[in-house]
Amino acid sequence: MSVVIDLDRERQERPKPSIDALTGLTQDDIQQVNQTIIDRMESPVILIPQVAGHIIAAGGKRLRPMLTLAGARMCGYEGDRHIGLAACVEFIHTATLLHDDVVDASDLRRGAASANAVWGNKSSVLVGDFLFSRAFELMVEDGNLDVLRILSQASSIIAEGEVLQLVTANDTETTEEDYLEVIRSKTAKLFAAAAEIGAVVADRPEDEWQALDAFGHNLGMAFQLVDDVLDYSARQATLGKAVGDDFREGKITLPVVLAFNAADGNEKTFWRRTLEDLEQKKGDFRRAVTMLEKSGALAASMERARDFGARARQALEPFPDCDIKSALAEAVEFAIHRSY
User: Fold this and answer.
1) Exposed e or buried b per residue across 225-254, where buried means at least 16 C-beta atoms within 10 angstroms of its C-beta
2) Would you kindly state where each structural domain of the chain is located, as residue ranges?
3) Which of 241, 220, 183, 226 is nearest to 336 (CA)?
4) Most distant CA pair in the chain: distance in Å?
5) pTM more than 0.85
6) Per-residue pLDDT tens for 188-204?
7) For the domain 17-332, what is the CATH code?
């Protein structure tokens, strides 16, 4: 039985997790964040708001800024510093998306044409740089050195993760630990930082900073591993990007690492031809999916995602029970059981 069927059955057997509760509880704050984003992406250079607005208007879950908002509220914060910092987190995330699409030569983002497909690579890179700069302006305006340290460190680690991914690109000998280090840096670090600064602005003890950092980190790891699986099992209209992009670009993700480790000689030759040499022909993607299912690599990747999800839920234990804590726990379930 394929992992796609297994995932569908899981969704049918339990109430469908969502981030609706988290969205509802942070709705007023997220509206202010959206307005801050609109205000701060303005520039007399008209191309900047055009490109930035294109990717921001394309939607997205706003999950990372919601972690900042929810974390602050769960810690009892009643001010408004978390608004600017949540916008800062979204600017960092959007900048990385603009850069990623150039590096990956992607034509689709969130179900629409990517910015680089519309305006070209140069514009996308430069507007990404602009958004990074805006993010640092917001950090400085907040005036808290711990916030500046956490978010600036996250930005540099994200960049390191992107470079590390380039180093491991098209390398079928990549180990599981090497790959997990890539996603710790390029994905999980921003989740962790976004959650942690919620406790920082609330002036909570450092053990609560660490708890929210652990929550965000493990949520981010689970989120990315599910992304890896969806690229080989989702429907393009649902996922919002071209299914099979990772395969076509020769990206080494956890399902591939696990399948390669379990492969026989002929199968390893297939992976090297398609991912290292990028010699792909009609039917290769379907064959890759079949091999991933047969080896159990997709199911094993989902099992690791569930493990990170369990760690994320455990990290919330120090906080008193409340609606926001429950919504964050459900967000973990959503990250694991989502189809997009």
Assistant:
1) bbbbbbbbbbeeeebbbebbbbbbebbbbb
2) 17-332
3) 226
4) 61
5) yes
6) 999 999 999 999 999 99
7) 1.10.600.10
